[in-house]
Design goal:
Length: about 325
């Protein structure tokens, strides 16, 4: 009887403490997304789209229908102001193919297969220059969105080399020696593409690709000289044996694009790639991606000053 009493009392305590919890999930509100870039010796390139509900279709038609036309987009360097033209991937002006392919993330030969629209200009007065700050203005449906970005002084590698791993003498990482300037806040982005000629007579990689964590700043090495290695991101796209993942095989020829950016662009990209890396992980900390665009839009207006090195994978 005594055991029965305690069990009954315990059940009464737990059942009397239960409470129905109601979670109010806010509804979906469509927002404008502006993604723009200007690099040294390259024209400005801006894509405008709308956010999608998490339950919206994710097929190619839904993706293509998300792009926004009819905006007035201008870029100013403080002296010249240029209105960008709206062009679509299946009707690009001469010379815009390589830029569009890199921005859209598809090969130049595939551009005509899609109707992806963006804003750009081939006016040489608006080609990116180191030391200049560029103001982006987007006018759409009575609203105005603005952002500014700077093309900062680039930083160059002291040297680059390929070194095989002890366990895989025919595969290795790409290594560089970098001297970081003494100014705080330098931030970098690493991209690569292989320019080996394939069986079709063309380079095997059409566009640059970023590795797992492509951006970093000098928080822990400001003003220091040091060496570091980066992985081969293309090795994860093919059926590469596990022991070779992230490594470049002997004989590859690789172009390294090492871009420098201002602090706001770094903050955006660092959080963006962190969110990509932790997507679907229930134990990760939620990440809010910042932006440098005023007026209520999402996205980023990014200035880059890239430097290039060619890595030949030979001992």
């Amino acid at each position: 009887m005594k055991h029965t009493f305690y069990i009954t009392l315990t059940l009464l305590i737990f059942t009397s403490c239960t409470k129905e919890v109601e979670i109010d999930i806010p509804g979906y509100a469509e927002e404008l997304v502006i993604d723009g870039v200007i690099e040294t010796n390259a024209p400005p390139f801006v894509m405008i789209s709308k956010t999608k509900d998490i339950y919206a279709p994710t097929d190619i038609d839904a993706f293509l229908n998300g792009f926004v036309s009819g905006a007035t987009v201008t870029v100013s360097d403080g002296t010249n102001t240029v209105v960008l033209d709206e062009w679509c991937s299946d009707n690009l002006p001469p010379g815009a193919g390589p830029i569009a392919a890199q921005m859209f993330g598809i090969s130049e030969s595939e551009l005509a297969n899609y109707h992806i629209c963006a804003y750009l200009t081939l006016d040489p007065s608006m080609s990116g220059q180191v030391g200049k700050t560029y103001l982006l203005t987007v006018e759409l449906d009575g609203n105005t969105y603005e952002a500014s970005t700077a093309i900062v002084q680039p930083t160059y590698f002291d040297s680059v080399w390929w070194k095989p791993e002890p366990s895989t003498p025919n595969h290795g990482f790409s290594w560089v020696y970098l001297t970081d300037p003494p100014t705080k806040g330098d931030a970098y982005k690493w991209e690569v593409k292989r320019i080996n000629i394939g069986m079709d007579g063309e380079p095997i990689d059409q566009n640059f690709k970023v590795p797992f964590s492509p951006v970093f700043n000098d928080q822990f090495f400001n003003g220091l000289a040091f060496e570091f290695a980066y992985e081969n991101p293309f090795a994860f796209e093919t059926e590469t044996p596990e022991e070779y993942l992230g490594l470049y095989p002997l004989g590859d020829t690789v172009v390294i694009k090492f871009s420098k950016m201002d602090a706001q662009v770094y903050e955006y990209l660092e959080k963006k790639y962190l969110q990509i890396q932790t997507a679907g992980n229930p134990f990760s900390t939620p990440t809010n991606i910042p932006n440098n665009i005023s007026g209520g839009a999402l996205g980023v207006w990014a200035g880059f000053s890239p430097s290039y090195d060619t890595l030949i994978c030979q001992p």
